[in-house]
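ok new one. same drill as before - structure tokens go in, u give me an amino acid for every spot. 171 of them this time. try not to just spam alanines like last time pls lmao
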């Protein structure tokens, strides 16, 4: 193959690759292109919408889709979570974002194990959850690991008895 043709072929393939990469990125969406309903839900972003990265715009639009299918109770819960999030100090929000990213990088089995443990915690009566949280805060890291190991094997009654002990005892 003559050098001219080889160069043209390489350049052509390279440009095709650039075109594919450009297509992989969603195009920006102007505020005016949003439906009235989308604009209503996304109103807090109106003044900076056109400056948001296209990926963020797509993410927010998917949120609007979820919002449309929520019950009034689910919407109220979502609004409450947003208020709590906005009230957090920036450092805490950043720490939460990092932990979410770490969670996303875990293998699916580990993510599922964490979800199951979280669900079990949520199913505990409120007073037991509070007691667990207080006990946890009063422990040093080595005690926390022992606590997790021990708690896993306890019956509900053993757990209640354990939670009534002062922090650090019974581990």
């Amino acid at each position: 193959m003559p050098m001219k043709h080889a160069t043209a072929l390489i350049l052509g393939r390279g440009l095709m690759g650039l075109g594919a990469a450009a297509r992989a990125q969603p195009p920006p969406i102007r505020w005016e292109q949003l439906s009235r309903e989308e604009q209503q839900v996304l109103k807090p972003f109106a003044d900076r919408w056109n400056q948001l990265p296209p990926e963020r715009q797509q993410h927010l639009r998917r949120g609007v889709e979820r919002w449309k299918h929520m019950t009034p109770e689910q919407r109220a819960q979502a609004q409450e979570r947003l208020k709590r999030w906005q009230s957090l100090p920036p450092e805490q929000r950043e720490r939460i974002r990092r932990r979410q990213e770490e969670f996303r990088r875990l293998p699916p089995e580990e993510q599922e194990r964490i979800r199951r443990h979280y669900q079990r915690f949520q199913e505990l009566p409120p007073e037991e959850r509070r007691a667990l949280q207080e006990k946890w805060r009063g422990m040093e890291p080595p005690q926390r690991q022992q606590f997790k190991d021990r708690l896993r094997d306890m019956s509900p009654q053993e757990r209640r008895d354990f939670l009534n002990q002062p922090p650090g005892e019974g581990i």
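The chain is about 70% helix and 0% strand. and btw The CA atoms of residues 38 and 61 lie 7 Å apart.
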